[in-house]
Amino acid sequence: MADFIVDHSIVEVMSSFADFRPLKLCFDGSSHKNGTGIGILILSPQNDPIKFRFRLNQFCSNNKAEYEALITGL
User: Fold this and answer.
1) Does the pLDDT value for residue 28 go beyond 80?
2) In whole angstroms, how far apart are CA 50 and each of 21, 37, 69?
3) Which of 7, 9, 61, 74 is buried deepest, with most CB atoms within 10 A?
4) 55 Rama sector, left if φ>0, alpha if ψ -120 to 50, beta otherwise
């Protein structure tokens, strides 16, 4: 089986990863007496912004709101 895979494998030229620019993720979470909200900003390699805002159904601390924003962004 291994010899068959080696003999019939398709050779693809891998492009260099140096050409790729990553997406950028910015996030923020806030909690106050009126509720908890998170904001997410994703910047494309061309720096085109994609914005999201969410209100959480649960009350949580500012720290937990920050973690919720990070998890949602990922």
Assistant:
1) yes
2) 16, 17, 15
3) 61
4) beta
